[in-house]
Write a structure and sequence with these properties.
By secondary structure, this protein is an alpha+beta fold. It has nine helices and 19 strands. A hairpin with a 4-residue loop joins β9 and β10.
Length: about 425
Amino acid sequence: MAIQVTRTYVGSIQNHRQVCDGLDSLGDSASKIWNVARWTVDRVWDATGQIPDAGTLKSYMKNQWCWKDLNAQSSQKVIEELSGAFQSWFDLRQKDDTANPPGYRKHGDTRPKSTITFKEDGFKHDPENNRVRLSKGSNLKEHFSDFILCEYQTRPDIDLTAVESVQTVRAVWNGDEWELHFVCKVELETSESAGDEVAGIDLGITNIATVAFPDEYVLYPGKSLKQDKHYFTRTEYETEGENGPSAQSMWARRKLTERETHFYHVLTDAIITECVERGVGTLAVSWPEDVRESDWGKTGNKKLHSWAFDRLYQYLAYKGEERGVEVLKENEWETSKTCSRCGDDTKSNRVERGLYVCSSCELVANADCNGAENMRQKITPSPHGEDRSNGCVAQPSVHLFDRESGTFTPSEQVVS
């Protein structure tokens, strides 16, 4: 069976020396549009106490000279990004009144190179010759037909001539040079169902994922992710410039993003692969309904708002779809306090963060395993009372992220 999915492919620019000045101008213009719109938001906020929405900002910005530095759709995308950043800040501010709103894009007296997004009428793609033509705004054109022609190269396993369509092209400054990101519609052949078995997964902050397979429980801790966040966040703040982020600070921020993305991809690949190998055709994923509105205190809220449960679900869903594993989003309400053996939901059964002891049937379990098993039982027809030994639920297997191989491996095989 074929499905249509969206993929982003990265291409290096082969004629970088010839096009970098033009891309620098566009990146500077994107930052300029952001800054003018940001200043406008301040004025409206001071006058009315409200933040203008994207539509209002676009209407105002169309009359500003800098708007025509970029293709109209590219300028609109900058405003959409700014509005999205304000919405994220507003949501966070409900729980953390120290959160700062989106700032200006400035490095002292200069502006950083912002990403430029080219939608349908802003680029012309020639996949046969690995070239893409990017539009300039009328202010930056030397003549009517002026444009930037980039020659690119993708990974050997990527063939953009085979994709159904390229929807968007983004020019992204990676800290050292410009690169192109192609957002494409791709048709993939999917596998039949991987099997009839059911697994449940409990998503968390310390243990990023705990999976209840039919015959085993597996924990995937996030220790390496936490170490990366500590190291690169410290590096970012220690190298913060007086007039905005320094080059070292921006490098640290970029490296952390890259490592997080790699970690989540490897984790979800590992889980889906385990499902396929164990004949699991259905995976029930815990979904913390309304968790963003919860109040865990100042420190807890910072962890809560960095919790990437929605990102993990998305990765699991599309990877599962390709390999015949149906990934279902299930409300995790009360799964952490309910006994997976007998169904007792006494709150005190959750003795501490990692320990669950049932006061009725005396099940002793790892709390995350108990939650994952309850997720599994939301789908499987097996009723409470299924044979689950204390040893199985209390001492799960642990798969750690191995930095040398870049994969998840049983803990006993990881060299510390």
